[in-house]
Structures are given as C-alpha cells and as structure tokens.
Amino acid sequence: MTSKTLFGLLCCLPLIGCDSQTKIPEKTTINPEIEQIVQKELEDAVEKYQATAATGIIMESKTGEIISMVSVGKIDPMQYVYEMGGQFKVFNTIMAYENGLADKQYTVNQAYVIRDKNGKELITIKDVPSTKKYLEKQGITKMSADDIFLNSCNVGTVQIALHLPDGAQTEFFHRVKLDKVLELDSGKTAKPLLPTKKGVVETATNSFGHGIAITPMHMIASLNAVVNEEYVYPTFTKAKDIKTERIVSADIAKHMRENMHKKAELLIANKSKAKNIGISSATAEKTGEKNAVTTNVFVTFPIDAPRYSMFILMNDPKGLKETAGLKTSAWNVIPTAGKILEQIEPMLIK
Q1: What are phi and psi of 323, to 5 degrees?
Q2: I need a labelling partner for 305 at 20 to 30 A (CA). Which of 59, 104, 201, 231 fits?
Q3: Considering the domain boundaries, does residue 102 fall inside one?
C-alpha cells in the first residue's frame, strides 16, 4: 500500500481531506466503488495537468443522494467558493425562455459597450478569441439564445441579461438557491459571494458567471434542478421524505437538456460517447491571479430522463504540449469526466 493510498483511507469518507469542515453521517449514501474511481481519475488529472486541486461530486438526480464527493489537493466542495464562469449561461438561457427572448436575434459580431445614463462607457464586453474567430469564419452576425449558449458567446449573453425585466436575474438566482447557505445533513456550505450592489454592470457580468462565487455543491444542485424541473437538496443519507421545489417548466427543462446534448456533441470528438449525456462547461479566469483559471464541467445522464448528475472542477490547470498550450475545460475537466463516466455508467445504468 502506497503512502498516498494510506492517507486516503485515513481520511473520512467522502474523500475530501482530513481538515475538511464537512461531516458525513456514518450511514452514508456514498458508494465506495464509485468514489475510488473518481479519486483515481482526479489524482491522475491533477498530476497530468499540473493543477493545484480538483473536486468531483456525483448525485442522484431525483433524490439528491450524493454517491461520491472527492477532492484532491486543498479544496472542499462545500466550503470553497469559485467563480463558475460560463455555467451561468445555462441560467441566462432559461431566463430568455421564461421572458419571451428565446427567438430574439442579438448582434454578436462586435464588442458590446455598456454605458451609463450620460453615455459614459462603463464596461466593454468582448468574446474570447476562439469564439470571435469562429463567428468571423462562419460569417455570423446575429444569434438567438440557444446559439448564444451553444457558442458560449459573452456578447450575446450580456444582451439577453440586459433585456430581462428588472429583478429577473436576482429572482432566478434566489430560486436556485445561489444566494444562500445550504444547510445539509453534512453541515452548512460556505456563503456565496454576490455583488453588494446590483447595477447594470453586475447584471451583465453575472450573466456569464463573473462577479459571483459559489461552492461546487451549490453548482451541481442548481444545474441538476434546471434539467430535472425541480430543486432537490443534496443529502448524504438515504432519502425518505424527499422535498422538492418546482424550478422550471417541463418544456424548458427538456429544451435545456436538448441544448446540453448538442453541447456534448460539439465538445466530444467521439460522437458515440456523447449520445446519452448532456454537458455544460466553463473556464473562468481567477480574479487577481495572472494567467490562472478554474475549469469545470457538469454532466447529466441519461439525457432523455436524467438519473445522475456529475460536477467536476479543476483549479489552475496548466496548458500542455499535447493541448497546444490550451487550458480551457475541453482540454482537462471534460476528458477527465469522460474517463470517469466510461467506468461508472455501466455500474449505475443497468
């Protein structure tokens, strides 16, 4: 037995580190076999991509039962908060559906300047070079909400957010519990960090996940809710009386699952591996840390009637020679999630 293996066994389940504030009940829903697979793949990924840490959560979609929660490095998925970047575009797209903006065409081939009432420039929103290059190559000048999501277009995302009714974004964040501490049977999560004021700039940047920081546990619970229609609180004990809250309509949840399935086909080269899953992913620049990012991916499966959700976050992965120096989610957390999924799906979906 290696020293690393021994250390893992000495730490309480789930494998989130001996100094974690999270206290897991003795009779837990954790599946040791699943957890060992996740542990190994995260360890390998942290080493391969020279990341400082990584964490992964897998939960049953309808009951909220956590079957695996693993961390490698200094990170606790219930106590550490991160900007989640483009994952918030999922919420922005849903708000477009709910407020009659889904079919509106937004200009996306130029930067979007936000000005105050006197015409002074407050902030200019631009897309990442890869998105801008793709739009130029395809000759795309306008896009609807679905295409804005699929192309992860910041310029379009911001325009949707600023066309929403006043307070709609704040209400939706409240609806999916992103503005509160989650009180779970394993303890309380850290408190999300939200803007102290909510002006036009905050509304714009929050739409693509900048300026708001939440825990990975918040993230998986809220994303799980919008693909399954109802919010269910994560739990580490066998669910008996499951309390759920309606979040979105059945039609909107179905539409978002279809978008996530299209996203999986775009991001995964082997289309056969994308046939039964939905994905949303993000790369977020770390505030105050030059050239540092966090990457994350949400996976739901099977896509037609989700039974499980998985969320993986990697802190400060590095670009490698084999990734042409790129360190976005497609090059690290997505392939990591794929390796985990290949092993656990046959165990879970029988």
Answers
A1: -105, 15
A2: 104
A3: no
Q: Which residues of 49-66 are buried (b: 16+ CB within 10 A; e: fewer)?
A: bebbbbbbbbbbbbbbbb
Contact 206, 212 (CB under 8 A): yes
Q: Structural domain of residue 291, as residue ranges? A: 3-81+213-348
pTM (2 d.p.): 0.91
Q: What is the sign of the dihedral through the CA atoms of 145, 146, 147 and 150?
A: positive
Judge whether 53 lies within some domain: yes
Q: Which CATH number is 320's domain given? A: 3.40.710.10
Give 3's contacts (C-beta < 8 A, 6+ positions apart).
Answer: none
Which tokens hold the place of 57?
């959560």
Domain assignment present for residue 304? The answer is yes
DSSP label of 87: G
User: Has residue 125 got a pLDDT over 50?
Assistant: yes
Instruction: Give dist(CA 21, CA 17) in Å, integer.
Output: 9
Counting the structural domains of the chain, the total is 1
Asked if residue 34 lies in contact with residue 344, where contact means CB atoms within 8 angstroms, the answer is: yes
Q: Is residue 221 one of the residues assigned to a domain? A: yes
Buried-exposed string 280-314: b where 16+ CB fall within 10 A, e elsewhere: bbbbbeeeeeeebbbbbbbbbbebeebebbbbbbb
Q: Which amino acid is at 29?
A: T
Residue 251, C-beta contacts closer than 8 angstroms, at least 6 positions apart = none
Task: Write out pLDDT tens, residues 42-57.
Answer: 999 999 999 999 999 9
